[in-house]
Amino acid sequence: MKFDSRLIRKPMKQPRLQRAAWGFVTLGFWMVYVYLWTPLVTLILWLLGIRTAFFELYVREHTIEPFLLFTLPVLAVACALLLIAWAEYNRFRFSRVDRRSQPRSATLTEVADSLGAPPAVARALVLGKVTVLHMGEDARPQDFTALTESA
């Protein structure tokens, strides 16, 4: 089997302007897709009585409750401050020492034993970038082919 670089996308090798342009195109199509769903969402909300509740609370009296105009922004700011405080607490608590330890590297014999493969296959997997394994009847790697990456 030949290595086909067209099967693997490498978006970081595209120019930044091209990636940004395709990102905006994708965003535009997602917006059109969401817009096409709005009639169904409106129907569901109407059946659930959401439109009626909005009409009864706001439109009928032609005013918006001043309590809501004050309370909602205060609640939003309070939630944001609480989230920022929690993040800063965690940053202060955990930023001093990295307590994570590096896992030890597996030896070639451990890799070969866990795969049930000869040591040469384990060595090829560790040293090679692209390696094709040839499996035996017992679904264990028997042999390998090391490929050179040409992209």
- In the predicted model, the low-confidence regions spanning at least 5 consecutive residues are none
Mean pLDDT: 82
CA-CA gap between termini: 16 Å
Q: Which sequence of strands runs across the widest sheet?
A: 1-2
Overall structural class, as computed from helix and strand content, comes to mainly alpha
From the alpha-carbon coordinates, what is the Rg to the nearest angstrom? 29 Å
State the helical fraction: 55-70%
Shape: elongated
- Strand tally is 2
Describe the 3D structure.
The protein is mostly helical. It has 3 domains: 11-63, no CATH class; 65-94; 108-147, no CATH class. The chain has 5 helices and 2 strands. It has helices at residues 16-48, 50-59, 66-94, 108-115, 119-127, and strands at 130-135, 141-147. Strands 1-2 form a two-stranded antiparallel ribbon. Helix 4 (108-115) crosses helix 5 (119-127). The longest helix is centred in the N-terminal third of the chain and has 33 residues, at 16-48. The mean pLDDT is 82.
Task: Indicate the topology.
Blueprint: H1 16-48, H2 50-59, H3 66-94, H4 108-115, H5 119-127, E1 130-135, E2 141-147
Antiparallel strand pairs: 1-2
What's the short story on this structure?
The protein is mainly α and 151 residues long.
Index terms:
single chain, 151 residues, mainly alpha, two-stranded antiparallel sheet, 5 helices, 59% helix
